Amino acid sequence: PELTAPIKDGMTVKIKRAVPVLVSVDGRSLVIETAEDSVKDMFSTENIMLDEKDKVTPEISEPIKAGMKIKVVRVKE
To answer: Which are the contacts of 59, defined by CB distance < 8 A and separation ≥ 6?
Structure first.
């Protein structure tokens, strides 16, 4: 349900807590608390833009895990 939806009898509510991840990008190390499912979704939510040639470790399709270290290497040609 939406966050603003009234609670009704028999309703199932799932709570997803944010977890910390360490993102190294553009010479900075950022600790980001995220509840997103994947690295790609977290980048989108945090407005971290990627160029198609940029290298991301782990892959952007990887699921987010608490304490995960994510590195972005900008590739310029």
So the answer is: 39
Which pLDDT tens digits describe the chain residue by residue (77 residues)? Answer: 677 889 899 988 888 899 999 999 999 999 999 999 999 999 999 999 999 999 999 999 999 999 999 999 999 88
Whether the CB-CB separation of 66 and 19 falls below 8 Å is answered with yes
Query: What DSSP designation does 66 have?
Result: T
Delimit the domains of the chain by residue range: 19-73
DSSP per residue over 19-62, as a string?
EEEEEEETTEEEEEEE--SBHHHHHHHTT----TT-EEES-TTS
pTM to 2 decimal places: 0.81
